[in-house]
């Protein structure tokens, strides 16, 4: 009861901000609810500096609710479907993920960028946009402004990709299957993947690339598991090297992101139930709740973010996001050509 009293006000404020943003995201899926929420939160905080007794609830939403969203995301992953359809795309997925991470690492050194922002932009570009950022941020200890910065960069190139990729795919002669692979591997966020694939299907009646693009995208999402675990152990080793392990209460739990384990368990439950004949629609409410929790968490992150500071420091992350985006698109098309798909 005490916890509810302490966090209740902040939770309610985040909920009130996220509700209209959720509906706006349904109306404009290319932009998406999380972007509307983070912008709304930043605008509110321009006029509301002192959060007072709402601060604990806002902090809880930006950290814990974000982790709950990632766990529920697992209910949208049927591993058997991914194994059947996603296997063909695996070489392309691995190549694009490696490309984005390498570009982000090199540019972080050349541009002297903060490590957390570079990691979040690289992971968000290569895996699954906001969901990957949501999973990675707690593992590397990113603060709310770093999360907001990276989400903003990913959003920018999501919108551009959703608008221009269908026309680009037609201009270079991609097949329906080829565009499904291209959209699934070269567009960051799930909503933008579906928007691009739906636009292609509208331009090519009967193409049905939406299913292919979505499954390829879900296959990419599985990369959250090894990436976050690798980052967790890297952070733990760094803490040890700096001689802070004892002071910081270092433990196995601090190394292993438990919410990622629950994410894996959720996807296993979905797969087992599917094999047992349980319809996929059974898990639809969990997937919807996951998306809503992300919107709520982004509202909280927006409330903790200085919009003026964000705009002033946005040049380097945007350039990094551009380079990652171009690199992924080129590698995706290049690998299709090598594999004889395009």
Q: Would you give an account of this structure?
A:
The protein is 79% helix and 0% strand. With 342 residues, it is mostly helical. The longest helix is centred in the middle third of the chain and has 28 residues, at 144-171. Residues 248-252 have low confidence and may be disordered.
Secondary-structure topology with pairs:
Blueprint: H1 2-27, H2 33-47, H3 55-73, H4 79-85, H5 90-110, H6 115-126, H7 129-140, H8 144-171, H9 176-186, H10 190-203, H11 209-221, H12 224-241, H13 252-255, H14 258-275, H15 284-303, H16 307-312, H17 315-339
Helix pairs in contact: 1-2, 1-3, 1-15, 2-15, 3-7, 3-14, 3-15, 4-11, 5-6, 5-17, 6-7, 6-8, 6-17, 7-8, 7-12, 8-9, 8-10, 8-17, 9-10, 9-11, 9-17, 10-11
Output the radius of gyration. 20 Å
Number of strands: 0
How many strands, which pairing sense, and closed or not: the largest β-sheet? none
**Beta-strand percent range:** under 5%
Spatial shape: globular
Q: CA-to-CA gap between the ends? A: 59 Å
Structure classification: mainly alpha
Mean of residue pLDDT? 84
Quickly count the helices. Answer: 17
Unreliable parts = 248-252
Helix content: over 70%
Strand/helix succession: HHHHHHHHHHHHHHHHH
What is the gist of this entry?
This protein is an all-alpha fold and about 350 residues long. The protein has helices at about 1-25, 35-45, 55-75, 80-85, 90-110, 115-125, 130-140, 145-170, 175-185, 190-205, 210-220, 225-240, 250-255, 260-275, 285-305, 305-310, 315-340. It has 17 helices and no strands.
């Amino acid at each position: 009861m005490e916890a509810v009293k302490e966090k209740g006000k902040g939770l309610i404020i985040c909920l009130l901000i996220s509700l209209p943003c959720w509906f706006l995201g349904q109306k404009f899926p290319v932009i998406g609810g999380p972007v509307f929420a983070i912008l709304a939160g930043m605008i509110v905080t321009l006029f509301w500096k002192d959060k007072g007794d709402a601060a604990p609830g806002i902090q809880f939403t930006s950290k814990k609710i974000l982790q709950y969203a990632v766990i529920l995301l697992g209910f949208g992953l049927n591993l058997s479907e991914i194994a059947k359809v996603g296997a063909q795309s695996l070489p392309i997925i691995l190549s694009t993920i490696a490309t984005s991470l390498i570009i982000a690492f090199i540019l972080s050194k050349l541009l002297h960028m903060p490590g957390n922002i570079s990691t979040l932009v690289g992971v968000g570009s290569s895996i699954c946009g906001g969901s990957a950022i949501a999973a990675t941020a707690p593992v590397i200890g990113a603060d709310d402004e770093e999360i907001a910065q990276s989400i903003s960069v990913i959003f920018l190139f999501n919108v551009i990709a959703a608008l221009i990729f269908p026309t680009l795919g037609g201009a270079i002669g991609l097949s329906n299957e080829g565009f499904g692979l291209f959209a699934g591997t070269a567009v960051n966020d799930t909503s933008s993947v579906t928007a691009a694939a739906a636009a292609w299907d509208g331009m090519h009646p009967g193409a049905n690339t939406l299913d292919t693009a979505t499954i390829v995208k879900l296959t990419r999402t599985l990369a959250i598991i090894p990436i976050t675990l690798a980052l967790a152990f890297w952070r733990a080793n760094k803490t040890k090297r700096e001689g802070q392990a004892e002071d910081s209460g270092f433990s196995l739990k601090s190394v292993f992101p438990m919410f990622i384990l629950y994410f894996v368990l959720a996807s296993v439950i979905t797969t087992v139930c599917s094999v047992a004949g349980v319809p996929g629609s059974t898990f639809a409410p969990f997937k919807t709740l996951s998306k809503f929790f992300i919107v709520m968490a982004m509202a909280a992150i927006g409330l903790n973010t200085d919009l003026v500071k964000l705009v002033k420091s946005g040049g380097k992350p945007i350039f990094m996001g551009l380079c990652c985006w171009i690199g992924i698109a080129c590698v995706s098309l290049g690998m299709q050509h090598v594999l004889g798909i395009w």
